[in-house]
């Protein structure tokens, strides 16, 4: 049986997820707003609740992107990673949802770090409306801020 959605049928909504437990010793995070050409990057601290935009990764193709991701992980030595996962406004998944989830699996497998997923609907719109010069990095900050606010 196929998981494909028949043409004209509504796309399935984002799956309901159990609350994620983030170990208390995870204090530093590196967040990504995945894109096929540009991937926004931000760093953040659980203790301070602050995020900082970093230079956006401009790379096409998984190998080129992962080389730059590896350099960022080496530079910032985060305890865990956070990725934004895009959905349609109604919560339905789309092509970029699958791409972002695949990126998260690749990060987990390649770097052995825990990867947390955040629903990133409207993060780019919010970044642009805030006047961001680098909307990708600003979106990564918004994603990471949302994640940090969810922590106890």
Task: Write up what this structure looks like.
The chain has 152 residues and is of the alpha/beta class. The N and C termini lie far apart (41 Å). It has one domain (28-149): YqgF/RNase H-like domain (Nucleotidyltransferase, domain 5), CATH 3.30.420. Strand 2 (38-45) and strand 3 (50-58) form a beta hairpin. Helix 3 (123-129) crosses helix 4 (135-149). The chain is 36% helix and 22% strand. The protein has helices at 62-76, 95-111, 123-129, 135-149, and strands spanning 28-33, 38-45, 50-58, 80-85, 115-119. The longest helix is centred in the last third of the chain and has 17 residues, at 95-111. Strands 3-2-1-4-5 form a 5-stranded mixed β-sheet, sandwiched between helices.
Main attributes?
152 residues, alpha/beta, Nucleotidyltransferase, domain 5, 5-stranded mixed sheet, 36% helix, disordered N terminus
């Amino acid at each position: 049986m196929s998981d494909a959605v028949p043409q004209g049928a509504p796309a399935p909504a984002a799956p309901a997820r159990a609350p994620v437990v983030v170990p208390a010793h995870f204090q530093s995070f590196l967040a990504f707003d995945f894109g096929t050409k540009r991937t926004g990057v931000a760093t953040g601290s659980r203790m301070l609740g602050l995020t900082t935009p970093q230079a956006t990764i401009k790379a096409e193709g998984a190998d080129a992107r992962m080389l730059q991701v590896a350099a960022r992980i080496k530079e910032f030595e985060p305890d865990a990673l956070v990725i934004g996962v895009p959905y349609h406004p109604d919560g339905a998944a789309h092509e970029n949802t699958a791409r972002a989830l695949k990126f998260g699996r690749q990060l987990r497998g390649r770097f052995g770090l825990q990867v947390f997923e955040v629903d990133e609907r409207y993060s780019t719109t919010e970044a642009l409306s805030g006047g961001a010069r680098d909307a990708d990095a600003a979106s990564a900050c918004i994603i990471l801020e949302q994640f940090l606010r969810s922590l106890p």
